[in-house]
């Protein structure tokens, strides 16, 4: 079974890369791939969301030491995120912090 001559459908990166198609949907597929690839290389997220979550947890009654021990990071790591000095947070760290539930108390 030969794959020679087989052409991928439009809107796939394979068609863009192997068949050199530059139609709108193939270029879009390629752009999406590039975006994901770059995001993967960077592997970090903006600290804003993480910082807001941390602040919420502290408001909730978590102590910084207690919270650091809970998520398994150094207190200084959390403090850096809170201070805003750290613009980017490693996505794994962000995931761990965001996984700590915030109690939703309606004001
Ligand atoms: Zn195409």
Give a written overview of the molecule:
The longest helix has 19 residues, at 24-42. This protein has helices at 13-18, 24-42, 47-59, 64-71, 75-83, 91-98, and strands at 44-46, 88-90. By secondary structure, the chain is mainly alpha-helical. A two-stranded antiparallel sheet has the order 1-2. Bound molecules: zinc ion. Zinc ion binds next to helix 2.
Q: What proportion strand?
A: 5-15%
Bound molecules: zinc ion
If strands are numbered along the chain, what order do they take across the biggest sheet?
Answer: 1-2
Could you state the order of secondary-structure elements as H and E?
HHEHHHEH
Radius of gyration, CA atoms, in whole angstroms: 22 Å
Number of domains: 2
Summarize the topology.
Blueprint (H helix, E strand, L loop, with lengths): L12 H6 L5 H19 L1 E3 H13 L4 H8 L3 H9 L4 E3 H8 L9
Helix pairs in contact: 3-5, 4-5
The protein binds zinc ion.
The site of zinc ion has 6 residues, from helix 2.
Structure keywords:
107 residues; binds zinc ion; 434 Repressor (Amino-terminal Domain)
Offer a quick outline of the entry:
The protein is mostly helical.
